[in-house]
Amino acid sequence: MGEVKVIRGDITQLAVEAIVNAANEALLPGGGVSGAIHRAAGPELAAACREVAPCPTGEARITPGFRLPAKYVIHTVGPRWQGGTADEPELLEKAYRSALAIARQHNLRTVAFPSISTGIYGFPLEQAAPIALRVLREEAPHFDTLYLVAFDEKTYEAYAAHL
User: Which domains does the chain have, with CATH numbers?
Assistant: First the structure.
């Protein structure tokens, strides 16, 4: 039975089979975690993303990890927060589930997620955390370890409180 771990750190440094990128629909390098992943992986990642783009909100795509310790990057697009009236919780859940479905299709056993949609997309952290952790716990039996990687203390505390 797999486990879910909440850790604080830099997702680009984890030696797991796949890391998840909180991507935009064009899969272009952006700010936040997406920019960090693209910088760490090198320019080959952007070229690979162009091959599999676009990626609608709630869906996921996979590319090699290139210069990352992770073999793969699974790109998923979470929703932009619009006040909670545009199916944001359902779309966030779908983004996590889509990424995990791709991981299962590729027989990946260790996957690390950032906090999807809680940065520039504005999804409230206190609402995102229970959604993410519920999905990860439900899917954990199919994996060895699923990580939720918090870049800062506020995010770590929000996810740890719901674990």
Answer: 3-162 (3.40.220.10)
pLDDT tens digits, 85-99 = 999 999 999 999 999
* pLDDT tens sequence across 93-142: 999 999 999 999 999 999 999 999 999 999 999 999 999 999 999 999 99
- Residue by residue, DSSP assigns the chain as --EEEEEES-GGG--SSEEEEE--TT----SHHHHHHHHHH-HHHHHHHHHH----TT-EEEEE-TTSSSSEEEEE-PPPPSSS-SSHHHHHHHHHHHHHHHHHHTT--EEEE--TTSSTT---HHHHHHHHHHHHHHHGGGSSEEEEEESSHHHHHHHHHH-
pTM for the full model?
Answer: 0.97
